[in-house]
């Protein structure tokens, strides 16, 4: 069941133009690579958090009432571990959102879950609450890799989770994987890819492990180990080989790459994630969540990362923001071009320049050089990176910005 969303003319991607991200911060344990806003908790304040989310939404709509009438085309419950949240509270929140915003009938509504939290009753509850896309945090089928990543499940639990998801009639099942892990081999990554496609998912997201502190939001146990010289990661050549084998295995199974780290069957690309890559607008609710609003003027805000502070701020009737950044034309241009170049379809780079008042001519020679040297293609005005170019995406963007 592909979801409704307009096609972004600059990239050709079906993408939500207005979405909502809801962050559920609670976990039973924190993975050593995770830099998200998460809190380890044995007792999760499920009802209190649901009430706080809707209270924050009320406060944001009071500040931006024009958002009430915009078609909401995607909702994403991420974390943390949203599958720790009882379905009754997920239903409460989704019903509350629908009562306050204009949710499109064909909206994509995703929930992240961990395989070890899968059970038939819980999955059925999420499905009946309105969740129509389940994203499982698998990361690997290999016991050694799962241990290195601090994951609590095993391969059998992954297969059971997918089976239960199918029984619950989720229209879309997605899985997340990581490669480039310490101790991991190219052969193990290939085996993970083959086992993943054998489960017939509609969507797969596969990311290279990020450990370097300078690209993380906060220090992680692995980033500290790397800094102390205690962590040996696979070589750059091995990581490139891992990325290639993932593309080859997924592609042969009909899951085609549509973004640097994402593959899907035809029609099943993520409408919500595409919103981020195509300059859409999104509300964000919950601990540590980041949102971007384009009206009345473009700005990005981030909520406090402490659950206790978040709850106290919201319950006191205050917006739980840690900071807000006004986005000018140059910032919007840089993000739109860089994100667009992550997409296999590419982006109409001249139209992006014109939209944000940036000069075209000084960049034309650089675009020609990228094409000449095999880093990009230019078709119908749309600039798209080749696999060679995607491997150096940041460097390409730096030359164009």
Structure notes:
The chain has 401 residues and is α/β, with parallel strands linked by helices. Helices cover 39% and strands 23% of the residues. It is built from 15 helices and 17 strands. The protein has a 9-stranded mixed beta sheet with strand order 9-10-8-7-6-5-4-1-11, sandwiched between helices. A 3-stranded antiparallel beta sheet has the order 12-13-14, with no helix packed on it. The longest helix has 18 residues, at 46-63. It is globular. The mean pLDDT is 94. It is found in: Cytoplasm. It comes from Myxococcus landrumensis. Probably acts as a heme chaperone, transferring heme to an unknown acceptor. Binds one molecule of heme per monomer, possibly covalently. Binds 1 [4Fe-4S] cluster. The cluster is coordinated with 3 cysteines and an exchangeable S-adenosyl-L-methionine. This is Heme chaperone HemW. Keywords: 4Fe-4S, Chaperone, Cytoplasm, Heme, Iron, Iron-sulfur, Metal-binding, S-adenosyl-L-methionine.
